[in-house]
Amino acid sequence: MKIMISSYCPRSIHSIGQVLASLGESVTTWTPTTKPIYDMFYEKEPDVLFLGQQDMQEPSNYAAIMEHKNVKVVSCGAFMDDVLDDTAFINLAICQPGIPPTLLKNVADNVPVEQLQVAANLIECRQGNYNGELVYDVFYHSSEPDTSILSPRYIELFEKFGARIAGPSQIPINQYMGNLKTQTKYDIFSSAKIIICDNLDDAYNALYCGSLPLVIRGAAKQIPEIFDTFSSEDQLDTHLSKFLGSEKARRKTIKQKRKSIVETETYFDRLNEIAEYVNPSWKEQSTLTKERLMA
Amino acid sequence: MERAVNTNQRETNGMKVGFLAYTAGTSQLGTQLMKGCNNLAESKEASVSVFIREFDKLVVQPQFPLYQCVHAWDYKGVLISTDFDTTMILKTTYAAKKKLHYVWNLDWLFNRKFMEEYRSVYCDDSIDLIARSQEHYDIIKGLWKEPTDIIEDFNYEDIIKTVKKYS
């Protein structure tokens, strides 16, 4: 099948795309700003099209899709008022975590709605290797930093515990070491002891790779109970003291929590949740591929 | 010519030290480097050379030779780089008796580079690090590797002590 994913889709959909590519499907990312939707349909003739929130605001997208009724459309966002009367072309609406699915159901009764939770990206995590030089006690991957993390007390804690910071967001703290290549990121996730996360993707991936994530409370609207969270300097201090103080307790916690992630919280499992609306055969394929990758 | 070189070697106890810098001109680093090297040349403890990438208006007149960076390639003394980019050049030189990186600035805080690039420079086993202050020493030790010395603002006496270790 030819699968097209709009660049406006959230990160979780692109991770689903990686899973689909691993199943042998032809997956392409479409950038609406550089290629109009009619050209994309003409050149690629996709069977499945994933649209993001911004795509849902563009009337020409609806017009183009209505001319290609055989394409299965998965939308990741709210519908425009103009199309509420005719949402039959949408096979599935995906709702982001934290937004009640009823919000979409109210406006489009005929469209099934699934809430897609963030999960571990098994394909990317498998890139990570243990590296003895990267066994950092505390590592903060700065991707979407909360400004509160820049407070003097937090910085004091980073110094106290010898934390290192790296990531796409350049933070003006002495411990910031630069941006990270994907490979290095997963090497660190596989080697460091504690990872401070400001988004759930990192938290799932860090736990899958074998380190202990500590999630900033504001990282997401809903943070699964499986993760230890902190919202103040004192809480972070307590967590770090506890887990760095006892290697045994840290390892035990990781072992317990990682088990459920590996079993049910990967994007292979998330694909199973949406497969029945788009292509039921993906279910079996994804289960097999997951088992093969984890063997 | 040969006699002149011999005289220089005798006068400077045979110690040779070279610095790699972006410029020797209008910057704090350039000015301090020129002052430090002038003091070093006057002391006659070591023969000093500076290799620069960009020629700029000189604030302090040098009492020692200035070269283009490319000439550092086969320099046979102790060679000291002063920033990330000149350390990349330092890595390609082959004749230096000892390679040192004087971490004048905490480059990783200001440039958008990958951590791997910084690691390849700051954690390179063949290049020893020199910190500029105790505070820098602690930061560098915590993040990359332990600097071997602390030299404040190109203090020529400290430079001589360091160079003596490798000469």
Question: What features would you describe in this structure?
Answer:
The complex is a heterodimer of chains A (295) and B (167). Chain A has 295 residues and is an alpha/beta fold. Chain A has 13 helices and eleven strands. Chain A has a six-stranded parallel beta sheet, sandwiched between helices. Chain B has 167 residues and is of the alpha/beta class. Chain B is 38% helix and 21% strand. Chain B is built from six helices and seven strands. Chain B has a seven-stranded parallel beta sheet with strand order 3-2-1-4-5-6-7, with helices on both faces. Chain B is globular, with a radius of gyration of 15 Å. The model of chain B is unreliable at 1-10 (pLDDT under 50). The A-B interface holds A 133, 162, 164, 166, 170, 172, 174-181, 184 and B 106, 108-109, 111-118, 123, 139, 142-143.
What are the salient characteristics of this protein?
heterodimer; A: 295 residues; alpha/beta; 6-stranded parallel beta sheet; B: 167 residues; 7-stranded parallel beta sheet; 6 helices; 38% helix; disordered N terminus
List the helices and strands and how they pair.
The complex is a heterodimer of chains A (295) and B (167).
Chain A: E1 2-6, H1 11-22, E2 26-30, H2 37-44, E3 48-51, H3 53-56, H4 59-66, E4 72-75, E5 90-95, H5 101-107, E6 113-115, H6 122-125, E7 138-141, H7 152-160, E8 164-166, H8 182-191, E9 194-197, H9 200-209, E10 212-216, E11 228-230, H10 233-245, H11 247-264, H12 267-278, H13 281-294
Parallel strand pairs in A: 1-2, 1-3, 3-4, 4-5, 5-6, 7-8, 7-9, 9-10, 10-11
Helix pairs in contact in A: 1-12, 8-9, 12-13
Chain B: H1 2-11, E1 16-23, H2 28-43, E2 47-54, E3 66-68, E4 78-81, H3 84-92, E5 98-102, H4 115-122, E6 127-131, H5 134-143, E7 149-150, H6 156-166
Parallel strand pairs in B: 1-2, 1-4, 2-3, 4-5, 5-6, 6-7
Sequence of secondary-structure elements of chain A? EHEHEHHEEHEHEHEHEHEEHHHH
Distance between the termini of chain B: 23 Å
Strand line-up across the major sheet of chain A: 2-1-3-4-5-6
| Average of pLDDT of chain A | 87
Mean pLDDT of chain B: 87
Please give the number of β-strands of chain B: 7
Percent in helix of chain A: 40-55%
Structure annotation, total helices of chain B: 6
